[in-house]
Amino acid sequence: MIASSTLVPTAPRPFPTSGFEMIDSTEMIEEETLPTYSAEKYYPVHIGEVLDDRYQVLAKQGYGVTSTVWLSRDLDVYDRINSAKTDHLGRTFIRKLLDHFYIQGPHGRHICLVHQALGLSVDQFLCFLDGQVMGLKDLKPFLRQLLGVLGFLHTEAHIIHTAHEPGFSGIEEGEMEYPSPRKILDSQIIHTSQIPIPGNGLPLLSDFGEARFIGKKHDDDIMPNVYRAPEVALKMDWDCKVDVWNVAMVAWDIDDIFDDRVHLAEMIAILGAPPVKFLKQSRVHSVFWDDEGKWKDLAPIPDIKLEGLASDIKGDNKEGFLRFMRKALMWKSEDRPTARELMFDEWLMEGLDLSKKVNQT
């Protein structure tokens, strides 16, 4: 849930109860299309509804695979973030949790998180760019801020994020004038999302539904399949270096991959064969490699190289970008730099005035 700073606490505003497109009840839309969707997990929100005697629902902003049961842990993560006593600059680029409360739905109790309002996600922003690709010039400040946030999370809040994905009065008026399409079921109304237009503002890291605390053992499945670090795909223990791998994945415009065999085959093509000693740490390595570390050809190794994949990238100093990528894309997590170390990569710092001391980065 997000809160719009443009609203003044007044009487609830009445929203249209007609004039919207009715979607056929048999058509799967929005969260219904998710493989893990279950109606009982979602509170049946109505546009115009007032929650906790304070927050009026204005418009739907999106949906995700993280259910309310995952979000209940999200509070612990935000408590950890808020309790960190530091003036680290990376803290500035985290989406703030303003409030939280509980509501009772027909299938159980749900928690609502009130966040500061945001604009577009990175994926939505790319839709407005030529070719839906961000040039290196625009990519650099985005990566610097992302690495700055991760530096804060790893060293100050001791949190692993695990999954990176980055004008509300206009949305409210749009909902009044052009009510969003929706479908009505027996006990559930599913609204379509309202996407904001691009505006000015700094990118913020959000969605801590899959975050983990540093200092505990982790070996569970995390990250979207296409972003999975080697240690995650191979069911090994993993740590905060999965976030560093993820930064490189976010920086690259890659196709969806839903099969670990294909994902690992592409890693071999780009990174070379993994060290045998590294493979022995995986309880499932024998599924993919023999005892000598030879790939079992469960999926063909594609004829691709990192340099070839960069042929369409727009911007100067592609060589510097590729060096940056290779630092983050390492089989062994201990060979990857920390988020702070990667933030000071030569290519990423290129063009900045470093004569002034930067504190708490």
Automatic annotation (TrEMBL):
Cellular component, GO, one term: nucleus
Domain of life (superkingdom): Eukaryota
Keyword rRNA-binding: no
Listed EC numbers: 2.7.11.1
Top EC category: transferase
Reactions the enzyme catalyzes: L-threonyl-[protein] + ATP = O-phospho-L-threonyl-[protein] + ADP + H(+); L-seryl-[protein] + ATP = O-phospho-L-seryl-[protein] + ADP + H(+)
Boundaries of every Protein kinase domain copy: 1-348
An example molecular function term from Gene Ontology annotations: protein serine/threonine kinase activity
Keyword terms, alphabetized: ATP-binding, Kinase, Nucleotide-binding, Serine/threonine-protein kinase, Transferase
GO process annotations (BP): regulation of mRNA processing; spliceosomal complex assembly
Signal peptide limits: none
UniProt cross-references to PANTHER family, sorted A to Z: PROTEIN KINASE DOMAIN-CONTAINING PROTEIN-RELATED
Protein name listed in UniProt: non-specific serine/threonine protein kinase
Organism name: Aspergillus wentii DTO 134E9
Lineage, top ranks: Eukaryota, Fungi, Dikarya, Ascomycota, Pezizomycotina
